[in-house]
Amino acid sequence: MCCKASCVSSKITLITGPIGSGKTRYLNRFLYQDGVGGILAPSNTEKTTYHLQSITTGDRRIFLSEEMFPNSVKSGRFYQSEETRQWANELIIAELSSFSSIVFDELGKFELHGGGLTPAFVAALNHPNLEIYASVRDTNLKAIIDYYNLKQFTVTIIDLLAIE
Q: Which contiguous run of DSSP H or E holds residue 53?
C-alpha cells in the first residue's frame, strides 16, 4: 500500500450501521454525481438476495441468494456467484484511473477472508488521490479497519444510527 511518504494516500469514508440501517441508500446519493464509479449491493426487502450493480453503467448481476441459482456455490447461508464477484472486481479496478471517487457496497465477512471485493479494495487503497466510500456493517467495522490497516489513511466514519 502507499505509504504517506511516497504518495498522496486515499481518503476513506466508511458508512456504518446494522443490517437494514440504510447504508446502500446512503451510498445511492453518489449515483448522480460526476467522477464516481464503483459498485452498489442492493438487496430485496427480505435481505435474502443481493445483486452487485455498476454505478456507471447500471449493469446489475445476482451475487448472493438463499436460493440456489445457475453457477452458484454455497457459502454460509447464501449461494454466491464467483463470476459476479470477479466481474465487480475487474470493473472497479478498470475504473480507478477514470474516477476521483469509488464506492464499495459493502465490505464484510467475504472481504475479511480475502474474498469479495478485496482485490479491488486493495487496488483502490494503493491508488493515489482517490476518495473511497465503503459501507461496512457495524459488527464488522473494527475488523475491516484492522484487516486493511486503515489507520494509516485519512478515515472518516459515518455511523447512520448516530445521525438519525
A: strand 49-54
In SS3 terms, 41-75 reads as CCECCCCCEEEEEECCCCCEEEEEECCCCCCEEEE
Residues 101, 39: Cα–Cα separation, whole Å: 11
Q: How many residues does the chain have?
A: 164
Which three cell numbers mark 141?
A: 467495522
What confidence category does residue 88 fall into, taking pLDDT thresholds of 50, 70 and 90? very high
Q: Top-level CATH class of 11-159?
A: alpha beta
Collapsed DSSP state (helix, strand, coil) of residue 30: helix
Helix or strand (DSSP H, E) at 14:
strand 11-17
Longest Cα pair distance anywhere in the chain, in angstroms?
A: 48
Q: What is the rounded distance in angstroms from the CA atom of residue 81 to the CA atom of residue 75?
A: 10
**What's phi and psi for 95, nearest 5 deg?**
-85, -15
**pTM for this one?**
0.90
pLDDT (tens digit per residue) in 108-119: 998 999 999 999
